[in-house]
Specification:
The chain is α/β, with parallel strands linked by helices. The protein contains 22 helices and ten strands.
Length: about 600
């Protein structure tokens, strides 16, 4: 259970909570013990099973001596005040100790609550932080629904298993130790009889826990698959409707849901088996004690009141033992959840920042791709790219789908790192630069613009930590977005819905451009920024892009070649290799691949 133990590292943030919890739990157990200790001597006195001594023996920590002392003082009180006042006093003491015990139990839960919720908060923060620094390739291999499942259900299992165990282990072992010590003090022989059945109980419970862990892992994986199906369906609901595939998706989800339910039934059955099994085994131990203890009483080796107290205390020992069993099984389930969570936290951070990385405060000269190659695993994508982009110039990258265009520009902000070769900005290798400072110099407008379920103003200002509404409005005007924004219900304070779906494609793209304008980065990447738009929207967006590109170093990926005819240089990629380069007129005159692409689009 190595993954579970790693969760306990968060306990270092809550030393006082843990210390106070242990203190209050110990006090609760001690006060609870006194509630029973006060009863036994009174039973002896009430039923006359043990006559009080005529004089007190020398004091020692011995069960019989202590019983004599309590019986003696109770008999003195009975003689002075009567039996019923003594009964009232004993009942009052019982109630007082019970109140103190339960008050301490509540105090123990009160001080531990910040730890329980704080650890899950820190764990979620660590996962989310890890998600924000992992390379794009990690998410290409993962399903978003499964990641969401790990952030929600797996952490809930960890909280229920690991953190509940922290609370239980701060209370139940104290109960077991204190009650066991008193039982040993009362009758070591009877307690030894109970220990005979313990090895069998531990072995059977461990066997159940081992199976529970494997079943829980299957259940959590199937739940992740279920969430992934839900996320895919929500993202593609229009496509499902348009192709009338509702029934097939319902059946697909139902099969996955049935698999998850089947796995969780196994988990529930094995988890619930441990409680009755442990109780049966403890009952077997109790039967041994009743038989053997009864023989001890009949032979005069043990007082009946002491035997009754032993049975009462032994019954109080059963719940904490059962709780420890439940904790063990919950930890097995939590370990499977922790393994899934740590798959994210331990994922290889391929985009690493060197110690003492250089901060890139400005872009002054040029970008250079020097013999750059890149592969996705064993699949080569780019081959020996040589490019130089002076400041203020526009480079267009064209080619067929899958030729490596997007990968080429993704290497610049270090969404991926080149397999070989170097990319330099002003002569500095980008792997030597502080990643945040590098990305501050780069603005990105892509075909699939990402907007958030927030206001228009906050979406435009997404890349800026300090901004004013006037700056947002000026950026929107430059992006030809101000007019339609003012027609929205609440203008710049309008919520645009999940992924901005309350807006049209052209409106979303212009907000994305306004965001890049407000960020005001000297390097601009345009990744097919107009390819998904209709003619009218493309015209408005193209005007906004022309304003955005002024004075900036631009790298444009375009399928619509009419948008890049005025680029300073055009490079043509074919299967990851630059096969042509030059201006529009030069490449068209060569009659190669570029001209073929232009003619296909009827661009003169």
């Amino acid at each position: 259970m190595l993954s579970v133990w790693r969760i306990y590292k968060y306990l270092k943030y809550y030393p006082w909570n843990i210390a106070l919890n242990l203190l209050f739990n110990t006090m609760a157990v001690v006060f609870n013990m006194f509630t029973f200790v006060t009863i036994a001597p009174f039973i002896e006195l009430l039923f006359g099973s043990n006559q009080p001594p005529s004089e007190l023996p020398a004091f020692s920590l011995n069960q019989q001596i202590l019983s004599c002392y309590l019986t003696y003082y109770l008999s003195q009180a009975e003689a002075a005040y009567g039996l019923f006042p003594c009964l009232a006093a004993v009942c009052g003491g019982y109630l007082a100790f019970s109140f103190l015990s339960n008050s301490c139990r509540y105090a123990a839960q009160f001080v531990i609550s910040p730890m329980r919720n704080g650890i899950t908060m820190r764990l979620r923060n660590d996962i989310y932080h890890r998600i924000t620094i992992l390379p794009v390739s990690f998410f290409s291999a993962q399903r978003k629904g499964d990641i969401i499942s790990r952030m929600s259900n797996d952490i809930a299992d960890i909280e229920w298993g690991v953190l509940t165990s922290v609370i239980s282990l701060g209370k139940d072992p104290v109960n077991i130790i204190v009650f066991s010590a008193v039982l040993i003090f009362i009758s070591p022989k009877l307690f030894l009889y109970f220990l005979v059945v313990m090895p069998v109980a531990v072995w059977l419970i461990g066997l159940i826990g081992k199976r529970l862990r494997s079943d829980a892992a299957e259940g959590q994986n199937s739940l992740g698959h279920l969430f992934a199906l839900l996320e895919e369906s929500l993202g593609g609901i229009r496509t499902i409707f348009s192709f009338n595939r509702q029934s097939s998706h319902v059946e697909r989800f139902a099969r996955a849901n049935a698999q998850y339910a089947s796995n969780m039934i196994k988990v529930a059955r094995r988890r619930e088996l441990s409680g009755p099994l442990s109780e049966v085994l403890l009952t077997v131990g109790l039967v041994f004690i009743l038989v053997l203890g009864g023989i001890e009483v009949l032979n005069g080796h043990l007082l009946s009141s002491v035997f009754i107290l032993f049975i009462i205390l032994f019954a109080r020992l059963v719940p904490p033992v059962q709780s420890i069993v439940r904790v063990y099984n919950n930890l097995q389930k939590a370990n499977a959840a922790a393994e899934r969570v740590y798959e994210i936290i331990d994922a290889d951070e391929q985009i690493l920042e060197v110690p003492n990385a250089i901060s890139l405060s400005s872009f002054d000269y040029q970008i250079e791709y020097r013999d750059v190659s890149f592969s996705y695993g064993e699949m080569p994508v780019l081959h020996h790219i040589q490019l130089t982009i002076p400041k203020g110039r526009t480079l267009a990258v064209v080619g067929a789908s899958g030729s490596g265009k997007t990968t080429l520009v993704d290497l610049l902000p270090r969404f991926f790192d080149a397999t070989s070769g170097q990319i330099l900005i002003d002569g500095k290798h980008i792997t030597q630069l502080n990643i945040n400072s590098l990305r501050r110099q780069i603005g990105l407008v892509s075909q699939h613009c990402v907007l958030f379920n927030d206001t228009v103003a906050n979406n435009i200002a997404f890349g800026c930590s300090d901004y004013s509404l006037d700056q947002v409005i000026q950026a929107a005007k430059a992006a030809h977005a101000h007019e339609f924004i003012m027609q929205l219900d609440q203008g710049y304070n309008t919520l645009i819905g999940d992924r901005g779906l309350n807006l049209s494609g052209g409106q979303r793209q212009r907000i994305s451009i306004a965001r890049a304008i407000l960020k005001n980065s000297p390097i601009l990447i345009l990744d097919e920024a107009t390819s998904a738009l209709d003619t009218e929207s493309e015209l408005a967006v193209q005007q906004a892009l022309e304003w955005l590109m002024r004075g900036r170093t631009c790298i444009i990926i375009a399928h619509r070649l009419s948008t890049i005819v005025h680029a300073h240089e055009i490079v043509v990629l074919d299967q990851g290799t630059i096969v042509e380069r030059g201006t529009h007129d030069q490449l068209y005159a060569q009659g190669g691949l570029y001209r073929h692409l232009v003619d296909l689009q009827n661009v003169g």
